[in-house]
From TrEMBL:
Keyword DNA-binding: yes
GO molecular function: DNA binding
All residue ranges annotated as the HTH lysR-type domain in the record: 6-63
Family affiliation: Belongs to the LysR transcriptional regulatory family.
Keyword GTP-binding found: no
Stretches that traverse the bilayer: none
PROSITE patterns on file: HTH_LYSR
Organism: Roseateles saccharophilus
Keywords for the protein's UniProt record, in alphabetical order: DNA-binding, Transcription, Transcription regulation
Protein name, per record: DNA-binding transcriptional LysR family regulator
Family matches, as PANTHER family: HTH-TYPE TRANSCRIPTIONAL REGULATOR YBHD (PTHR30419), NITROGEN ASSIMILATION TRANSCRIPTIONAL ACTIVATOR-RELATED (PTHR30419:SF8)
InterPro entries: HTH-type_LysR_regulators, LysR_HTH_N, LysR_subst-bd, WH-like_DNA-bd_sf, WH_DNA-bd_sf
Length: 310
């Protein structure tokens, strides 16, 4: 295929002359000098190896080849303008929208309130939440489906930037009428006789807890299981057992008859953070959301420590 070695400026110059019927009128329309305009048309004719315009001292007329090329040039410029307009609309749409992937605990606690702050300041913004497990959150950020994620995994991933937001401990969730509910703290040995409710074995929370307890000689036995923390808490509330959950998870059930008791020997923590693709600079909506999250965290009770990253 022969290479088309012409420029958009040259095509626009020719179309302007054809429409104006003179170099002076076209030069004025394009804010160019007549010599500069003439050079562009001359270059176009040299590239095409054909005369497009008949020039006289009184007027400029299209040659047959010029009329043929004008029709194609006008269609091409119109298509290009349409493409530019569509891209600009898409850029504007993305600038006014934000997709965030987050783990279920965050989806039911921090993120809705941060979204509310953001929507109050930017009512035109479109916000989308992808509430998934930790592995799915990581994949959504890697693929670009979400501009940022909120999770406790990804800190060691080579393609992910992890910015800590808060560190929280895991507590024992149990009904307020449970015999252990009034204790200031519990050891894992205290739970050996308790029916345990746990999240699914492949969930990020379960993996973290199992790793932390791997060195214990005796571990509580799981009797009931749910896919997510919210389901596990529902089973606890129904009186089926007790569950080890992130402290943040209990803040979403203020009316529930549940309490969280600290666990030690070992004490298990997780660090919740913002995850983005490595080196990616956050857009305006994402930066505004980060600020809203920090404002929300600053208003929370002192049961979790905010991360030091800014």
């Amino acid at each position: 295929m022969k290479r088309i070695n012409l420029t958009l400026d040259e095509v626009q110059a020719f179309v302007a002359v054809a429409h104006a019927g003179s170099f002076k009128g076209a030069a004025d329309a394009l804010f160019l000098s007549q010599p500069a305009l003439s050079r562009r048309v001359d270059k176009l004719e040299q590239v095409l190896e054909v005369r497009l315009l008949e020039r006289t001292t009184r007027r400029v007329a299209l040659t047959p080849e010029g009329r043929e090329f004008l029709a194609h040039a006008e269609r091409g410029l119109a298509a290009l303008r349409t493409g530019v307009d569509e891209v600009e609309r898409e850029v504007a749409r993305r600038a006014a929208s934000l997709t965030v992937a987050c783990i279920p605990t965050v989806a039911s606690t921090l993120l809705p309130r941060a979204f509310a702050r953001l929507a109050a300041d930017h009512p035109e913004m479109r916000l989308r939440m992808l509430d998934e497990g930790a592995p799915e959150v990581l994949r959504a950020v890697q693929s670009g489906e979400a501009e940022l994620g909120l999770s406790f995994t990804g800190a060691s991933h080579p393609e992910i930037d992890f910015q800590p937001l808060l560190t929280e401990d895991y507590v024992l969730a149990l009904r307020t009428d449970h015999p252990l509910a009034q204790r200031a703290g519990l050891s894992w040995r205290d739970l050996l006789a308790e029916p345990m409710v746990a999240v699914a074995g492949d969930s990020g929370n379960r993996v973290l807890i199992d790793q932390a307890l791997s060195r214990l000689k005796q571990r509580p036995m799981v009797q009931f299981e749910a896919n997510h923390v919210a389901g596990a808490l529902g089973l606890v509330e129904a009186g089926l057992g007790v569950a080890v959950v992130p402290r943040l998870a209990l803040s979403v059930r203020p009316g529930a008859a549940l309490v969280g008791v600290s666990l030690k020997q070992p004490r298990i923590e997780r660090t919740l953070g913002l995850i983005t693709r490595q080196g990616r600079r956050l857009g305006g909506p994402a930066q505004a959301l980060v600020q809203a999250l920090r404002s929300e965290l600053a208003m929370r009770p002192g049961d979790a420590s905010a991360g030091g990253a800014h």
